[in-house]
């Protein structure tokens, strides 16, 4: 297994973590809400209410779960607006340098996202960071469940087994921590994305304000 056991293996989240897209998300959310007859939402309210699976987020906004038909429309309309804006989003501060430094130091890292795989891989490549990951996995089905079972499949897909005790998930959502716990890994949550700090702290894992701090904490967790 060699270098796979050196330091923490970090499983990175994409949207709201490595990709600084929260403002594109809010703009797309409000553009889709306008089409759907819902009131606009502020960044603060979004961060307070956001949760996975996403239909539960809409339940918090609407006071009821959307029907399957309503959800399909909501999902389609949101993604129409989001992907029109995603190309203009940059990486989070220091993300590329952090990834490169870890790769150069023999650390391993992978990427697991709920973004559609066929759209995730090209945008990661366009940012010039794909070579820093030993594996990249996006969503390949229509399910909008969280990451827990996807994390199982992600870790099982490695050519050489990972010591789960050295795996740390870094993301911007409570769901990232839930997925980590599901596989016996640890998690560090980052405040630059979808959740407020108060929401993230409910997960009971370290919460940080920068990716550099997230990496530092991840290494300490497995030291």
UniProtKB/TrEMBL annotation:
It holds the Pfam family Hydrolase. It comes from the Bacteria. This is Haloacid dehalogenase-like hydrolase. InterPro entries: HAD-like_hydrolase_sf, HAD-like_sf, HAD_sf, PGP-like_dom2. The lineage of its organism: Bacteria, Bacillati, Actinomycetota, Actinomycetes, Kitasatosporales.
